[in-house]
């Protein structure tokens, strides 16, 4: 194949640069050439340097030092990158369709909603179901592409940032470009052939369009507990609605006694592989949508979805000391995966009802106790409730309103150690609103005695 004039020019420049640099050195000073660059490359399906296979022989067999090879590769990469951006602009002249619109979902849709919309549309527009519709395959490919992007968090995040057209350019291999983006765009500044030949294509770039594996959907629910259930621990039997494997087809999506046929296009692999010189390209099979199988008839119970809405039950052991708003994750007790993978998880958020007696602060417990005026003045004993039963507490003489005492180790056991918190008793001095005549007389006598003591102390202070 004839080389382009641009490539010929770059090769001539490289030869000239080498000859000039060698001419300025003595034979003894000429460094040993570096190890040859590995030419057998793997490029992701969206491709960034298809030109390299075409010029592999001339590029890697040319007698240039190791540094010269890498430098030349970078020059060609920048040339081809600019050329590819130009072609991408031409091929993407028409506005790219919004992937959310294709699936008929909102931009804040969750993975469950995305998956549900995909299965419904894929089943409706599959070419085998719409053999008389010439546009069915195109619609199916659009739906498949939208799902492949939106089900992957990294792809979806990039799509939300750059929009439909920018993302289409990234898939085409051009990149959006822009300040600080270097030759490739999207902020991957400084990305050149030395990154690839060093065995390290930028990890984020390499993984951007990788297939993601998804299990079943997570189920979220709220469980209300009493104060004592949360403190002491308990066992709860839970029942909830979620997706379960269809029992009619045993999760195959096809009627019992039948099975999906292997896709003849991809031979069951779900991908189409093409070899272009030194490069291997791989893309999702558009005939089977990447499943590797084709279905002629769907299960009448689940409609080919492989899962149906159903009831699940679970016994949950709640450890002692769980607090309000904590969330427990029960692995594998969520929704069934239509693809037959791992089920989702069950996420149980705990809500603890307030107790009329106890208040909680971490591992500590607080209670309020009313005492009379005479108990506050004279002291005495009272019964105080604790988590393990009532205890007798001594009230000291002269106890003030709001004063508190600690009962060591009467709180909640820490979940991360063997220690228990404390229980704090807050005293509330109760002022009576109705008293007898005798009580009034005694209090008045007490008040007179207080006044005499005050007058005596004042006289002693002035004398």
UniProtKB/TrEMBL annotation:
<dbReference type="GO" id="GO:0005524">
    <property type="term" value="F:ATP binding"/>
</dbReference>
<protein>
    <recommendedName>
        <fullName>J domain-containing protein</fullName>
    </recommendedName>
</protein>
<dbReference type="Pfam" id="PF01556">
    <property type="entry name" value="DnaJ_C"/>
</dbReference>
<dbReference type="GO" id="GO:0031072">
    <property type="term" value="F:heat shock protein binding"/>
</dbReference>
<keyword id="KW-0863">Zinc-finger</keyword>
<dbReference type="InterPro" id="IPR018253">
    <property type="entry name" value="DnaJ_domain_CS"/>
</dbReference>
<dbReference type="GO" id="GO:0005737">
    <property type="term" value="C:cytoplasm"/>
</dbReference>
<keyword id="KW-0677">Repeat</keyword>
<dbReference type="Pfam" id="PF00226">
    <property type="entry name" value="DnaJ"/>
</dbReference>
<feature type="zinc finger region" description="CR-type">
    <location>
        <begin position="233"/>
        <end position="311"/>
    </location>
</feature>
<dbReference type="InterPro" id="IPR002939">
    <property type="entry name" value="DnaJ_C"/>
</dbReference>
<dbReference type="InterPro" id="IPR012724">
    <property type="entry name" value="DnaJ"/>
</dbReference>
<keyword id="KW-0143">Chaperone</keyword>
<dbReference type="InterPro" id="IPR036410">
    <property type="entry name" value="HSP_DnaJ_Cys-rich_dom_sf"/>
</dbReference>
<dbReference type="InterPro" id="IPR001623">
    <property type="entry name" value="DnaJ_domain"/>
</dbReference>
<feature type="domain" description="CR-type">
    <location>
        <begin position="233"/>
        <end position="311"/>
    </location>
</feature>
<dbReference type="InterPro" id="IPR001305">
    <property type="entry name" value="HSP_DnaJ_Cys-rich_dom"/>
</dbReference>
<dbReference type="GO" id="GO:0009408">
    <property type="term" value="P:response to heat"/>
</dbReference>
<dbReference type="GO" id="GO:0008270">
    <property type="term" value="F:zinc ion binding"/>
</dbReference>
<keyword id="KW-0862">Zinc</keyword>
<dbReference type="InterPro" id="IPR036869">
    <property type="entry name" value="J_dom_sf"/>
</dbReference>
<feature type="domain" description="J">
    <location>
        <begin position="98"/>
        <end position="163"/>
    </location>
</feature>
<keyword id="KW-0479">Metal-binding</keyword>
<dbReference type="GO" id="GO:0042026">
    <property type="term" value="P:protein refolding"/>
</dbReference>
<dbReference type="InterPro" id="IPR008971">
    <property type="entry name" value="HSP40/DnaJ_pept-bd"/>
</dbReference>
<dbReference type="GO" id="GO:0051082">
    <property type="term" value="F:unfolded protein binding"/>
</dbReference>
<dbReference type="Pfam" id="PF00684">
    <property type="entry name" value="DnaJ_CXXCXGXG"/>
</dbReference>
């Amino acid at each position: 194949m004839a080389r382009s004039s641009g490539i010929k020019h770059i090769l001539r420049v490289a030869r000239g640069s080498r000859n000039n640099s060698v001419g300025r050195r003595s034979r003894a000073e000429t460094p040993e050439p570096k190890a040859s660059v590995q030419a057998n490359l793997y490029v992701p399906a969206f491709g960034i340097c298809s030109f390299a296979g075409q010029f592999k022989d001339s590029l890697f067999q040319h007698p240039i030092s190791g540094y010269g090879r890498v430098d030349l590769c970078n020059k060609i990469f920048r040339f081809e990158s600019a050329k590819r951006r130009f072609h991408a602009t031409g091929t993407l002249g028409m506005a790219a369709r919004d992937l959310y619109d294709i699936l008929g979902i909102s931009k804040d849709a969750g993975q469950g909603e995305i998956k549900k919309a995909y299965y419904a549309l894929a089943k409706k527009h599959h070419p085998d179901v719409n053999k008389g519709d010439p546009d069915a395959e195109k619609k199916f490919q659009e739906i498949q592409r939208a799902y492949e992007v939106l089900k992957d968090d990294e792809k979806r995040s990039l799509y939300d940032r750059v929009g439909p057209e920018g993302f289409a350019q990234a898939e085409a291999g051009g990149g959006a470009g822009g300040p600080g983006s270097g030759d490739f765009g999207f902020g991957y500044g400084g990305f050149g052939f030395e990154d690839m030949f060093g065995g390290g294509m930028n990890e984020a770039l390499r993984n951007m369009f990788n297939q993601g594996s998804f299990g079943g959907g997570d189920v979220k629910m709220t469980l209300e507990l009493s104060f004592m259930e949360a403190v002491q621990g308990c066992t709860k039997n839970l029942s909830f609605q979620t997706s379960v494997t269809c029992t009619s087809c045993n999760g195959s999506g096809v009627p019992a006694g039948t099975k999906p046929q292997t896709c003849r296009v991809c031979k069951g692999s779900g991908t189409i592989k093409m070899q272009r010189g030194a490069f291997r390209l791989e893309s999702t099979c558009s005939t089977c949508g990447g499943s590797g199988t084709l279905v002629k008839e769907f299960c009448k119970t689940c409609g080919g979805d492989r899962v149906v809405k159903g009831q699940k039950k679970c016994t949950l052991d709640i450890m002692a000391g769980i607090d309000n708003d904590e969330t427990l994750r029960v692995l594998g007790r969520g929704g069934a995966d239509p693809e037959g993978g791992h089920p989702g998880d069950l996420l149980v958020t705990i809500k603890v009802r307030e107790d009329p007696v106890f208040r909680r602060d971490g591992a500590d417990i607080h209670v309020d106790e009313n005492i009379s005026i005479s108990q506050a003045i004279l002291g005495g004993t009272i019964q105080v409730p604790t988590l393990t039963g009532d205890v007798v507490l001594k009230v000291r003489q002269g106890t003030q309103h709001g004063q508190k005492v600690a009962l060591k180790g009467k709180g909640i056991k820490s979940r991360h150690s063997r220690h228990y918190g404390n229980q704090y008793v807050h005293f509330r001095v109760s002022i009576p609103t109705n008293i007898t005549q005798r009580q009034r007389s005694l209090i008045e006598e007490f008040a007179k005695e207080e006044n005499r003591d005050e007058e005596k102390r004042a006289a002693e202070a002035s004398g």
